[in-house]
């Protein structure tokens, strides 16, 4: 019984870590020609943009931040494009399709981090930093150790996130296009390197914007058609859905997701504060001209992301209403000797089948192509962020002590992009049959437990010292990683032990306070000469963070 | 500490604006954080109260409205903050910058 419960919990949390769309067993579907054609149209368009952006991509500032010349609105769309992953589209609508209300609880967790980013992070980040969040964390502290920590935090989060995305791409391509896993990994690896290597931040931003517009329009159309069928009455939609769903009216209220409030809350704070610590998200704030545009971009992003989650909720209910009684969307397979009838390709295909039901075969192709294109936008942002951590933080600041020639720094960042692409392909292949469901949750937990607290303290607490930042940050990284390995998602689901040593799926509720406490304790007991310098620098930093005096502006083109 | 920093810190208009902005940012942060935490804890403790229909005979439950409210509230609160910070606060900031830079040139 206990074992069954644990398996159930682990299952819930693998869905809740977005990742069901990206993981688990999938069965290759027949070749989907319209989808493949539309995907290659997207690729052609984005490669053309990359070609155009390549000519403007000459300085380090162009490469890292598109010269700081992106408008607040465009950046907001790009942030939304960075954040709305394939799995949040397919995974959350699938969650609504299977459990109803729980999908809504889950989306709110992803959204409420954005106001926090705005109120506490965005403006100061923009005024203090230039290329990476390490610029801000190390502003008044000793460069070498703080940047070493920030680069470790960045690279860990980026690699883990990247693996989850690439493996997810491989699973998706089998479902959506009927192509082989290895193709997906190669396509994703090669394209992300091309975008970033030649087009830098400008091309990456446009890939994210195009994808956001396509995904939002496709989802809007689907939600519109669903509502049209329900005479534009949510009540009729809910009524029709509850009539055919096997769980009946219970899909209108919370189900199993929040069985354990501590676990749910821990995941919630990881999502909330993780958003404010994801390096590829933080980096986006340096692409706008000033604090005003940075704030505007968060509002635009929050609006679009919130709108998108409302659409996925409608899409999920639409799938219940329109697919459940239609045998053409179901298949009967034998799994573990038991005959089961399920939606073709699994529950994560609910939104994809719905696109067929409301828009026919061509629209099905469009939605499949957009779902796959979504991954490209996310991995491009991740790669750029990883490359900047190596070239700007490790090479230019730690190794060359800030005396690197821009030309050399650029070369290192391009080289790193290439290395990250090769690594993504190798790891994507290596992890094909691994359960990577925990990885997105892990990335968020690490970002929330290490990057966020140190970034926050460096901006808000004048007594933070170099030693406090580094010891605190690394303890957050180590604690979060250890507890996830000992928790149900890895210890039980991946390593097949009977019971987890740490009972919660996400450690953030404990590891975020831990980082704060360690950073505080080490800082207040730090009486070194360096600590005096660290504290003395706060006021000048504060004034710049509030006014932007001396902040790096948009480059002149 | 350089002169410019000191002048900004000594500027009464800056002090007032910085204080107001920090009060606004912190109270909004606490507000959205508490709403979310209460939402999750309430679901954990009393899921059935989310399943109560909004009217007799209706299917739509209070839970749907509450969930939508959390999403719309998050969007609205960022909108209000941006309106305020990009409006009044930003004007004050630019004014303070002009004033202290003139002082610096004197």
What does this structure look like?
The complex is a heterodimer of chains A (557) and B (106). By secondary structure, chain A is mainly α. Chain A has 22 helices and two strands. Chain A has a two-stranded antiparallel sheet. Chain A is globular. Chain A starts with a helix and ends in a 10-residue tail after the last helix. Chain B is built from three helices and no strands. With 106 residues, chain B is mainly α. The relative contact order of chain B is 0.14. At the A-B interface, helix 6, helix 7, helix 11, helix 12 and helix 14 of A face helix 1, helix 2 and helix 3 of B.
How does the overall form of chain B come out from the CA principal axes? Answer: elongated
- Helix and strand pattern of chain A: HHHHHHHHHHHHHHEEHHHHHHHH
**Class per helix and strand makeup of chain A:** mainly alpha
The radius of gyration of chain B is 22 Å
Oligomeric category: heterodimer
Gyration radius of chain A, in Å: 23 Å
Number of helices of chain A: 22
Topology pattern of chain B, helix = H, strand = E: HHH
Percent in strands of chain A: under 5%
Provide the low-confidence segments of chain A as ranges: 1-23
What percentage of the residues of chain B does DSSP assign to strands (E)?
under 5%
How many strands, what sense, and barrel or not for the largest sheet of chain A? 2 strands, antiparallel
Averaged pLDDT of chain A: 89
Q: Reading side by side through the largest sheet of chain A, how are the strands ordered?
A: 1-2
Provide the structure class of chain B: mainly alpha
Number of strands of chain A: 2
- Measured distance between first and last alpha carbons of chain B: 19 Å
The general outline of chain A is globular
The number of helical runs of chain B is 3
Helix-residue proportion of chain B: over 70%
């Amino acid at each position: 019984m206990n074992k069954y419960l644990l398996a159930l919990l682990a299952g819930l949390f693998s869905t809740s870590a977005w990742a069901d769309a990206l993981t688990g067993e999938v069965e290759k579907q027949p070749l989907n020609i319209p989808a493949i054609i539309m995907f290659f149209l997207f690729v052609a368009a984005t490669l053309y943009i990359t070609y155009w952006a390549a000519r403007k991509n000459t300085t380090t500032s162009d490469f890292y931040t598109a010269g700081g010349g992106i408008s607040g609105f465009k950046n907001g769309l790009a942030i939304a494009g960075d954040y709305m992953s394939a799995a949040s589209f397919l995974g959350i609508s699938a969650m609504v399709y299977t459990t109803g209300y729980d999908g809504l609880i889950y989306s709110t967790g992803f959204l409420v981090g954005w106001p926090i980013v705005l109120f506490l992070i965005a403006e100061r980040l923009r005024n203090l930093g230039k290329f990476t969040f390490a610029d801000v964390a190390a502003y008044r502290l000793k460069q070498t150790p703080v940047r070493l920590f920030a680069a470790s935090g960045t690279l860990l989060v980026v690699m883990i996130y990247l693996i989850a995305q690439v493996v997810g791409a491989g699973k998706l391509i089998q479902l959506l296009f009927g192509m082989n896993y290895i193709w997906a990994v190669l396509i994703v690896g090669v394209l992300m390197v091309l975008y970033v290597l030649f087009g830098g931040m400008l091309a990456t931003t446009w890939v994210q914007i195009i994808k956001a517009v396509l995904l939002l329009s496709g989802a809007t159309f689907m939600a519109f058609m669903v509502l049209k069928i329900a005479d534009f009455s949510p009540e009729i939609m809910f009524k029709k859905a509850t009539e055919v769903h096997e769980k009946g009216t219970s899909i209108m209220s919370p189900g199993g997701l929040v069985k354990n409030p501590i676990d749910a809350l821990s995941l919630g704070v990881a999502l909330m504060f993780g958003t404010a610590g994801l390096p590829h998200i933080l980096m986006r704030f340096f692409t706008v001209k000033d604090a005003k545009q940075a704030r505007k971009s968060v509002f635009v992003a929050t609006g679009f992301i919130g709108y998108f989650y409302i659409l996925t909720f409608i899409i999920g209910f639409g799938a219940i209403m329109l697919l459940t009684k239609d045998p053409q969307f179901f298949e009967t397979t034998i799994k573990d000797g038991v005959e089961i009838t399920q939606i073709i390709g699994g529950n994560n295909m609910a939104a994809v089948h719905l696109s067929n039901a409301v828009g026919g075969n061509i629209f099905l192709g469009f939605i499949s192509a957009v779902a796959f294109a979504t991954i490209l936008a996310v991995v491009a942002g991740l790669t750029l962020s990883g490359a900047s951590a190596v070239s700007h933080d490790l090479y230019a600041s730690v190794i060359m002590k800030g005396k690197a020639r821009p030309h050399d720094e650029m070369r290192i960042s391009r080289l790193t992009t290439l290395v990250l692409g090769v690594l993504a392909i190798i790891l994507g292949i290596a992890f094909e049959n691994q359960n990577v469901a925990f990885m997105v949750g892990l990335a968020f937990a690490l970002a929330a437990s290490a990057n966020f607290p140190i970034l926050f303290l460096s901006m808000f607490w004048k007594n933070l010292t170099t030693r406090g930042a580094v010891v605190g940050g690394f303890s957050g990284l180590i604690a979060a990683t250890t507890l996830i390995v000992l928790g149900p998602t890895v210890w039980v689901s991946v390593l097949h032990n009977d019971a987890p040593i740490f009972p919660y799926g996400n450690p953030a509720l404990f590891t975020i306070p831990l980082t704060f406490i360690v950073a505080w304790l080490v800082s207040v007991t730090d009486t070194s000469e360096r600590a005096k310098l660290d504290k003395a620098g706060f006021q000048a930093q504060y004034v710049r963070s509030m006014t932007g005096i001396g902040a790096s502006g948009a480059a002149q083109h | 500490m350089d002169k410019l920093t000191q002048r900004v810190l000594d500027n009464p208009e800056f002090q007032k604006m910085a204080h107001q902005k920090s009060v606004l940012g912190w109270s909004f942060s606490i507000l959205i954080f508490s709403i979310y935490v209460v939402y999750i804890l309430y679901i954990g403790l009393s899921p059935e109260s989310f399943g109560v229909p909004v009217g007799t005979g209706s299917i739509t439950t209070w839970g749907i409205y509450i969930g939508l409210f959390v999403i719309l509230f998050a969007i609205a609160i960022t909108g209000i903050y941006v309106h305020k910070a990009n409006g009044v606060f930003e004007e004050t900031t630019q004014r303070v910058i002009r004033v202290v830079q003139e002082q610096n040139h004197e």
